[in-house]
Amino acid sequence: RDSLRENAFRHIKQFNWDKSAQRLEEILKGELKKKRSLKSKIHIGVRNPRKVLHKGKLLLKKAFRKDRGFDKYIVRGAYHWELYKNYPIYKKHVDYIIETFEKHERGTLLDVGCGDGLIACLLAKKGFKVKGIDLEKEGIRLAKKKCPSVVFEVRDIFDVEEQFDYLLASEVIEHLPDDDAFLEKIKGIFRKKAIITTPNRNYYREDPYHYREYTVFEFEDLLKKHFNKFKVYKTDYNLYALIEKEVVNP
Are 146 and 81 in contact (CB under 8 A)? Predict the structure, then answer.
């Protein structure tokens, strides 16, 4: 009872009247601007992924592509490299990941959803033997061009059978229709440690291309179903799960 009360109090501290009024205005303005057209239906489907998920992945994938959401590397190029140079908040996010891995003994590392290869390349420069995988062909093409010393592949995480010492999944889990299946899969891939990052849920600014976002409490509850040894760190923008592989004594 005490824990429930404390968690509820911490949760509602995110809200205030000014932000709530602003968010309501944004919703109303957005609804008023919508047109009764195919584009509007696609927008609604993307903004509310669960409404189209039961109809299958294919419909959702088409909706995203028509809305250009998954053409980001074609439209913006290797934009993570530019963000790292010019956007301090993103640089801080990436540097935290690099510095956390750097504390450990060097080994093999799988970067799941590597995109244009920025973080994989930085980790390789620190001495890790990195492989990056992503489903976006253009992202992988750019990654190979920017960092030819790292192995990059167009590959689904559920097709990976080999094991690695470490695993990174930065800003990936919020895009997946089945977060439980993803966590269960990666549990058998890394031997030592894994880092999973995801945006800290913002009730006033929803990302239309996320299946879901998590509060720190929701993220911890999800991880508890799959891992016994982990810590979650929270910033204003991101959640970081540092997971240790359990050693089972014979």
Answer: yes
Residue 196 has pLDDT above 90, yes or no: yes
Alpha-carbon dihedral of residues 215, 221, 225, 227, nearest 10 degrees?
80
> What is the crossing angle of helices 38-47 and 57-66, to 10°?
120
Pick the closest to residue 123 from 146, 107, 144 (CA basis): 107
Task: Say whether 151 sits in a helix, a strand or coil.
Answer: strand
114: its two tokens? 């590597």
How deeply is 73 buried, as exposed, middle or buried, from its count of CB atoms within 10 A (0-12, 13-18, 19+)?
A: buried
Tokens at residue 100, please? 């956390």
**pTM of the complete model:** 0.73
Q: In b/e form, how buried is each residue of 141-178, taking b as 16+ CB within 10 angstroms?
A: bbbbebbeebebeeeebeebeeebbbbbbbbbbbbbee
Over residues 112-162, the pLDDT tens digits come to 999 999 999 999 999 999 999 999 999 999 999 999 999 999 999 999 999
Write the DSSP string, 229-241.
Answer: SEEEEE-SSEEEE
Q: Which residue has tokens 């990302």?
A: 207
